[in-house]
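Why does residue order matter? Because the sequence determines the fold. Keep that principle in mind as you read this record.
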Amino acid sequence: MTDADIVIVGAGAAGLSLAYRLTSPPARLGEASASRGGRPAPRVLLIDAPPGPLRPPERTWCFWERGQGDFDDVVVRSWERLSVRGPDGQEWESRPHPWRYKMIRSRGFEEFVDLRLAGSSLVERLTATVDRVADLPDGAQVTATTPDGEQVLLHARWVYDSRPRRELPPGRTTMLQHFRGWFVRTDAPLAGATAPFAEDTACLMDFRTPQPAHGLSFGYLLPLGPDRALVEYTEFSAAPLSRASYDAALEHYTTQILGLGPFEVRDTEQGVIPMTDARFPRQIGRHTFRIGTSGGATRPATGYTFAAVQRQSLAIATAYRRGALPAPPQAHSRRSLALDAVMLRALDSGRVAGADFFTRLFEQVPMERMLRFLDGRTSVREDLTIGFATPVLPMLRTVAEMPFLRRGAS
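Structure:
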């Protein structure tokens, strides 16, 4: 049996971020020095899934941040201007200073963290499939199987499991944010007076796409250079589409709506993100926890996860160093989750039309305030002003019915 202070199951964004924070110097945790009487840095065992279906494909993580951040070395591109387009083509563009919208590719992030962890004597890596995590009186035991079939028993004081849940917890409303993106390279420059978009502006939502009968759809466009961009088609609805349907939607968006002209698809990405008001228990035993999306880090109304993962990881590492219970905190405030639940229900019930709902928000609310709202940093008064920018009567009707809705199996 192998012993460690902490075992982290899964080496995706949440697992790597937690390992990075746990082995960082105290100053990087926002402390001048380790707390008196606190714990030294832990011995960490990070379990990677073997190559195959348990390892997700390369993907893109985007987030907004003030000024410089810990991972700027691997930021592929950032934008200080953001825009939203309504169904009729009207555009709302803003420079929400001091926020910048940043893009990281998972491979670059993994290489960055791998390099830091390789230089630490505190971290051990193991490639294995985790079969069982069991809580014990003095810690937890992890049973895993290596690629050559050897069974390994691991004992740790604390275990953090970042693997996706097999089933979502029951919620009153559950939708999916599903998307497919093309990394395109065009024959002609994308920037300029006659170009379909500005190179220095990220378009978060473009509602000129045909809207589905249930939910909503939009284009998402991140310029990566004078002749390169990531273009995605996204839906909020009950079920994912076929690959052929995504590609048809992307073909229509790039050629008919954006008017890109001739281009080559250099790479693709595709994903599904849960949008639900389900409660995600983070502590599953006295010494075992869930982190990342399975620990409630995904914001229900938007699907953004990366920034919340960093907050969660930092809080765990700080609590551990201080000798406190290193439990993952709730990634989003109760008020934010309650507002998200109302929005999801109003959208899923059809009381509000998704494209009109979001267009109206961005038309009436400054982008800087919207970003703070989505990050859970707005005051109650600001939340009320944002609420008045939505269809008030349908939203109030939804608020009234929320206490009577049952959390059913999703």
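Residues 2-60+105-169+277-321 form a domain with the FAD/NAD(P)-binding domain fold (CATH 3.50.50.60).
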